[in-house]
Amino acid sequence: MGPGIEDPDIGPLMNKKAVAKQAEHVADALATGARLLVGGSGHDAGALFFQPTVLVDVSPEALIMHEETFGPVAAIAPFDGEDEVLARANDTEYGLVAYLHTNDPRRIYRASRALQYGMVAINRTKVTGAPIPFGGMKQSGVGREGARLGMEAFTEVKYVCRDWR
Hints:
It contains 4 helices and 9 strands, in the order H-E-E-E-E-E-H-E-E-H-E-E-H. The protein is of the alpha/beta class. The longest helix is centred in the first third of the chain and has 16 residues, at 16-31. The chain is globular.
């Protein structure tokens, strides 16, 4: 077994097209100047697996910085300040989930309000579960699944106004 397969959080992707998208995003990032630290190709666990991959010095123009990857590829890019990184994080037509790691409570407040994503995970990676209103912004979806907000999509509201004469 290859690296990462012992980790229960690493599993197969949904289909071969998803595996091809990982490879495309990695190849594009490398072509635009990124460096590969680990992974970067298919996995010997099977046709639907992709190696956990870390790319550094990823260009803002790389596809992975603008498209939803939905795979085990981490794109790391340098930045000079909080305003710049928030602007770059929002510079996409997608907005499912953003991840923020910091111990600064003021930064948590500022960034979680500024990020244009349906979900923001702070100092953690798991954001889903039955009580969570799962969903994104922009091209990542309208509405929510799960929790009370997910049920409202299936609720028909009727207002009846009547006099009792």
